[in-house]
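LOG
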Amino acid sequence: MSARLNARRAFYRLAQLLGGAVVGQALLSAANLAAGVLLLRYAHAEQYGGYVLVGSAVALLGALQAAFVGPPLVQRLAELPAAARRALAAGAWREQRRLILQVLLIGAPLLALAALATRASPGLAALSAAALLASAAALYRNFHRLLLQFHRRAWPILCGDMLYAAVLVLGILLSCRLPGAALMATLALGAAALLSGSYGARALRRDAAGDDASRGVLRQLAPLGLWSAGGAAIHWTFNQGYNYLVAALADVGTVGAIAGTRLALMPVNLLSTGIGSTLLPLTVDSLQRDGARRTLRRLALMAGLIALLALLYAGALWLLRDWLFDVVLRKSFAQRDTLLLLWMLAVVAAAVREPLIYLVVARQRLRALTLATGGAAIAAVGTVLLATPRYGAPGAVGGVLLGELCSLAAVLFLCWRECRPARVAPLPGMEMTT
């Protein structure tokens, strides 16, 4: 009877966490979609393109932080008693805070020197400085959100997401009515992250360890974190970094056109990544309790559900595409339908991959995952470089699609390998294996 009650409580906690994640990601999706729509509709395409480039840089730093800290930290936290967990989390945050301050202190002079050396316009220099501040605020928010997810604090996560969405949309509304929309939108992005992160830090106050914080945490996480961060950086090169290639090969206006068609599919992308971010601690627990095969079945079910929702949304979007671009966005892009179809395929592939990748991450096969992602990135970036000058924007998006398909194929292979009879041993420790 006790086992059944514990299982029921575990199911309710899981449902609460995933439900909160879905609602929170719906809010974040709506906020980011509204921000993009407002900028695209009321600002110049180049201003929107500038904001997209800033968002790509912020996304890179967030991905590096999540990859370096997330998997090894969650793994260690799951193995420790409560007091040791608090000490480890507090030590990780103390070192993260120090690192963020160092990024600001080093990054600001470097930006100033680069602006002087390249004779950049005052507007570009100001946008770069605002992007640096927004990046620091995003790192602050992301770390506290990661700890809230580990502690399964669904309500504080949801409240923090609501605060972030409200501040972002309000700031974007104001920025659309001011000159330099990209700069003001970037400042709004930073303010939203800072306020949401402060709320998360306050919600975690009872879990603080004070003077008992562990030391040298990031150095302890480095053996696995470096591989994970390397994989995240490589994946960013074709998932977000193509924006900079397109800006160099074409212009910022083309970046705006590509991002404008992708914008319509942002809810699916954010939903899959948002749900996926809650799956790491759950996957670690499932592996320890049930093994790799049953865990993969659960993750595959989640991937199938997300893929189904993505296909339904893409179908509805295709039917309403004329109304969306002509009435809502008031923008007309060359080869719009081709771009939209390519983005639909890429988003669905990413939605299927996102839950499955956590089996590989939780099993700590980060070296193999990084190498596989590197192969996908080479194929994607090579395609972007060759196809963009010839085919324009569709060539760039085709490169992203190829990268996503290669990445999905690699993750499927790694998941299959983990579930072979010789590889279904209990979850390993912190050692690196392939």
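LOG (cont.) second protein
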Amino acid sequence: MKIFLLILSVMGIFFLFPGCGGNGTFSGNKNTLSFFFAGEYIPTEGRIFFHDCTADTLYELFLSGAVSGKVGRKYSEMNNGKGEVPVFCSFYGHFGKEQAGKDKVLVVDEWRGFNWTRHCSPTEFLARTFVSGKDTLLLRKDYSYTIIWRNNDEYEKETGEWGRIKSEQGVLSGNKGKLFFLINEGNISSANNLVISLKNKAGVNFNFEPLPL
């Protein structure tokens, strides 16, 4: 984690992530789906960073108003004088519009809480390539995706954005509609027991397994 922070400090990258209230399903913009995020809350010298388990990406968090006060008090209560130490957390949020010269803005809609006994699990890292027979699903770290359905020499390609909507469930929201998938841990798989179960528009269920990293 120190490597992440060193990279940010050398490059001088600053992100602003304002917090707001939400119901964990939709943000203030009722057309914007609020996604589930899990990872490490990392306070350091007055700034808060978030290591996203799902995409293995580091963001700077800015929590304002009641959200900031609630999170800060809970962290202090559970920290019990340990200083600025990372702790696992989860929340619902959404990416705002991109601004010139900056990455997407991550808005916290609903804070779920801290967990001092948990860490990022290998099965939570989903920004990778999955395959099911001849079909390929590419989930990228910027939460864009490409899925290619192959039928002999012909193929159909879909693109869009993806995200987790629950701890064990996600959605592909693309140019041809939405496809929901389950993140199955513990199933028989050649890659750390990680399987994504995806039902296509014809109602046929496919199990996608990740390619080795």
